[in-house]
Amino acid sequence: MNHLNHPAHPIARRWFLEQCGVGLGAIAVNQLLQESGYAAGSKAGAVQDPLAPHQPHHPPKAKNIIFLFMGGGPSHLELFDNKPVLGKFDGQLPPEDLLKGYRAAFINPNSKFLGPKFKFARHGECGAEVSEILPHLAKVVDDIAIVKSMKTDAFNHAPAQIQALTGSQLFGKPSLGAWTIYGLGSESKNLPGFVVFSSGNKGPSGGSSCWGSGFLPSTHQGVMFRGGQEPVLYLQNPPGVSAQLQRDSLDTLKALNQKHLDQVGDPEIATRINSFEMAYRMQSSAPDVMDLSQETRQTLDLYGAEPGKTSFANNCLLARRLVERGVRCVQLFHESWDQHGGLVSGLKSNCKATDQASAALIKDLKQRGLLQDTLVVWGGEFGRTPMVQGGNDGRDHHPNAFTMWLAGGGIKGGTTIGGSDDFGFNVIEDEVPVYDLHATILHLLGLNPDRLSFRFQGLDQKLIGVNPAKIVTKILA
């Protein structure tokens, strides 16, 4: 017999840790689950809803967020950041000091300058400059804040998109939407708290990491919806499965999963229980929310939406319908902005597909009294080079300076901040790194970026990483 646990001796610390470690681990895990809202105590007899609304850290300015992500890198030089000086240097080589230490994705940095391809004009009472190929957005500039001084660390699509939406270029980190749901939960009982749509030529280069939950429990990840009456595949019952049979089956599965959860305390079991129940409720709620034929002809025309089709316009209208029903976060991807060549035709096509609906979303939310509670964000992973690629009709990836805009909950409309140099190459005023944008978004949603954390691999992980929270106060109302 081991002398450490002999009845004649008191219990030794070494024996206790060696023999009882598993039990202590289970106790600790169960406690963490209860604190995080993933498991009720055994007396409760049922798992709590991990998506139940949580109290924010401070009074929020926005309750929901709609992120219009323009995958591929929209050219700030043709859309928002007017550079007449760049036009004067069209066809000339850039100065050597401008390119010191610069890494381009594909082109030789010594490529010649390419002047802007479209005209700009001032609009609204604020006098914001907007490109001629954004005529609809030009009508709502007094409701948006334009940030011309965005900067990121990555110059290739996948890592830049992942950084733009998770705060890190590395795979495996939770997305902005997942952090939002983790911090706030969702007010919708019959729909996911985080919904994702995709339009354009292809999906985002960063893949599902752009809406994944990373090391957070998977219940916080985004749910991809498709167009049409079946937003999620296999949501409806197969032939021969009645509603009663389904309900009985789900109740049995729930009891078995609950028993397993009580034994091992794995949060993924709680996710499984809730995903089954959510899918059951979505069988009626999802087709209803996706039915755009319920909208008036006036609303459909405002967006340029067509029921039964898949388009960015339809997705914008669906985003409004979702936030009306309590969905916390909606993320729309439109991956078509990578104009290494065909810049003029490509930008015209992209703007035709997205400009009207983006502006309509702001108008529609505003007239329904939803804009004050809904934060709308528009932007991509980086901008485009002032140097030419593809003959005289293309631009390369450019992380040093690009533009995004925000509207709605807590944003000061009619504001333009930041600036880049005469060539749109480097930020020279009010630099806004991606993590500062994330900090500002969390702040508007009522979350403290420094406090919103999750213990993983021995570290208190955060969306903003190790960067101190810096709120972009100039765009706040």
Automatic annotation (TrEMBL):
Gene3D superfamilies: Alkaline Phosphatase, subunit A (3.40.720.10)
Pfam families named among the record's database cross-references: DUF1501
PANTHER family recorded: BLL7424 PROTEIN, DUF1501 DOMAIN-CONTAINING PROTEIN
Identification of the protein by name: DUF1501 domain-containing protein
Organism of derivation: Gimesia maris
